[in-house]
Amino acid sequence: MRSPFVKLLRCFIYLMALFTLCRVAFLLSLISELHPDTFSLFFGALYHALPLDISTASYLLFVPLLLLTSSYFTGNKLLHRVFDFYFLFVSLFYVLLSLSEIGIYQELHVKLYYNLFSRIFHPEEVLSYVSFKLFAAVFISIAVCGVSALLMYRFVTGDHPVPSSQSFRVKFLKAFSFLAVSAVLLVLGCRGGWQVIPINEGEVCFSKNACANDGAINALWNLGHSFIESRKSQQSNIYQTMETADAQRIFDELFAVEKDTTVSLFTLSKPNVCIIILEGWHNDMLKATGGYDSVAPFMNKLVEESYLFSNILSSGHISDQGIPAILSSFPALTFGSVINTAEKQTKLDCIGNEFNKAGYHTSFIYGGHLIYGGIKQYIYRHNFSVVMERKDMPALPSGQMGVHDSLTALLWRDSLSNFKSPFFSCYYTLSTHSPFDAPTHFPIGWGDAENSYLNSVAYSDRQLGNLFAEIKNHPLYDSTVFILVSDHGHRTPRNHAYDSKEHYSIPVLLTGGALKEEFKGKQNKRIGSQNDVAVTLLHQLNLPYKGYRWGKNLMNPYTNEFAFYTFNEGFGFCDNTGCMVWNKKYNRSTNTAATEKEKELLRTKGAALLQLLMDDFLAR
Fold first, then answer.
1. How does strand 272-278 pair with strand 423-428?
2. Which of 45, 457, 521, 543: CA 20 to 30 A from 150?
3. How many CB atoms lie within 10 A of CB 397?
């Protein structure tokens, strides 16, 4: 008779082996991220992952514990089948989850947290998000690891224990003892030991290399933790660290202006306004903002005849956070975007509404599918007169995400001619979104893992050049202002830390015939946020801006310089004294201010804004 203790122990060993197998696949697929200390970081991740793997395995073994206890006591063989089915499900789910992170991590440089995982239920978004090559590689990895896990399961766990013909009392005592002792051990395993504070992701972090740290975090633990945090965040304010009155006082001081005024940028009081939302452009793409000079030659040239805001940070890291930040001045949330919740997005202000009320014709054009991330519902709810996406366009050559920029730029240009002035139009580019399958000859080969992204930027840059070359000859150009702003940053060959200020650095520039000559070729170097774009524009046009409380007027010399951004379970707050980054998930923070007083002020200001942001979200 095999002891149930032995069976449970072998199941524990199997789960630990399964976690290691998937982790090896993850680290091997991202081996270039571990440079230059590849060997030590690879095996360091495997070693430091053990505490969180033990905790995850302990959680997963509670159901087998109950099944083993019941089958050992009753001898019911049906429970053995349930036991095997449970492990089959857990194994396949973990393999799918863990290896799916490869694709997510290569694109976003983050683990698969709950808000991203929920999009798996929209397969058309997932399939268009990754290249065929990457999808095939992940699929093959899942198949290999899945089959290996199933073969390993029977070999490691062995046969089911069969109770002997003992008296009811003896079997009951043995079963109860097994249940009690095992339950205590599993509880200790779940919380990481006897210590006061239970284990968390910070326990496994061992390096300054983000990929190695993320590789050490168990995929299932990470997903479960992010689900709990997301649910808690949407039910109560888990980021409340001070009295609401104190947080509000800090907010009021940050957004206070000695004088509500603005420096006028435009030659007309009601120019046509076009916002070109650049998909995933980073400031590293522009020489004028300290970036490369060879990736985007047209944009570098355009800077010379534009007014450039060179120190702007995006609010979040994905498109459905960037769109409401640009058009509604509403910041990204630590667990996702406000527009993912239908009842919340209806209560947002949007500059499209302000333009409608001012007599502008409004439009929004995108070559892909707006359904992603709730963007379509958000755009329609805010009354854009014309909305055009992939399904509304003629049969045109397309990639996985939709119609390439070379064609949508022409459609947008032609549509402007049909609009009655004044008009407000948003054109959202697409080709710089993964899987980067635009028809380009791939001239750039020095970015290694980022080559595809860099070439997509080069392609999109050429299409913008073609667009402006034609539109400058159009009569509407002299009465139009163009605002080019990225929806979020992107990973570049400079490999900025995911939570750093540098990662969120994005281009924002104004150009067009309606821009005053004295501002062309000039820069505004004040620290600002993507949330400030709408408020700055509304001030320029003397349109209502009071409902956009999270943005400030970048052209008011009396506004305070600062930017606030969020990421999964954390925030960054930057002003002219430094930058504070707080990461709840890893239980760590960095602060670049010079003095202790300045460091404390940065921390307090960031915490106050995060607290009030969550209060604002919950109240809507």
1. parallel
2. 45
3. 9
What is the pLDDT at residue 188?
94
Q: Is 616 helix (H, G, I), strand (E, B) or coil?
A: helix
Nearest to 413 by CA among 463, 369, 448, 377: 463
- Give which of 611, 613, 453, 541 is closest to 109, Cα–Cα: 453
Orientation angle between helical segments 4-29 and 78-108, nearest 10 degrees: 20
Which residue shows structure tokens 């650049």?
A: 278
Question: What is the residue-wise DSSP string for 541-604?
Answer: TT---TT-TT---TT-TTS--EEEEEETTEEEEEETTEEEEEETTTTEEEE--SSHHHHHHHHH
CA 67 – CA 61 distance, rounded (Å): 10
Predicted TM-score (pTM) of this structure: 0.83
**Structural domains of the chain in order of their starting residue, each with its CATH number:** 4-232 (no CATH), 257-559 (3.40.720.10)
Contacts of 448 (CB under 8 A, 6+ apart): 32, 493
Closest among 557, 607, 614 to 582, alpha carbons compared? 607
Written as six digits, the tokens of 576 are 């002219």
Q: Tens of pLDDT along 7-16?
A: 899 999 999 9
Residue 135 has pLDDT above 80, yes or no: no
CB 378 within 8 A of CB 345: yes
Residues found in the chain = 620
Nearest of 141, 124, 190 to residue 25 by alpha carbon:
141
Q: Identify the residue whose tokens are 């050992």.
A: 72
Q: Alpha carbon of 262 to those of 256, 329, 542, 543: distances in Å? A: 14, 18, 10, 13
Query: Which residue shows structure tokens 């033990």?
Result: 54
Q: Which two tokens stand for residue 134?
A: 């990457």
For the segment 27-63, what is each residue's pLDDT rounded down to a tens digit?
998 898 888 889 999 999 999 999 999 999 999 999 9
pLDDT tens track for 562-607: 999 999 889 999 999 999 999 887 778 899 999 999 999 999 999 9
Amino acid at the residue 512:
G
Instruction: Give the span between the Cα atoms of 601 and 541, in whole angstroms.
Output: 35
DSSP-assigned letters across all residues of 146-215: HHHHHHHHHHHH-SPP---S--HHHHHHHHHHHHHHHHHHHHHHHHTSSSSSPP-GGGG--SS-HHHHHH
| Chain centroid to CA 431 | 18
Strands 361-366 and 528-529 turn out to be unpaired
Who wins on pLDDT, 135 or 561? 561
What's the Rg (C-alpha) of the chain?
27
Could you tell me if 22 and 192 are in contact, meaning their C-beta atoms sit under 8 angstroms apart? no
d(C-alpha 418, C-alpha 197), whole Å: 64
**Is the omega angle on the peptide bond into residue 422 within 30 degrees of 0, that is, cis?**
yes
For 502-543, write each residue's pLDDT tens digit.
Answer: 999 999 999 999 999 999 999 999 999 999 999 999 999 999
How many other CB atoms sit within 10 Å of the CB of residue 272?
24
The two three-digit tokens of residue 484, written as one number:
């080019």
**In 277-395, which ranges are continuous DSSP H helix?**
297-303, 319-328, 342-345, 351-357, 375-381
d(CA 593, CA 577): 6
Rounded to an integer, what distance in angstroms lies between the CA atom of residue 309 and that of residue 288?
10
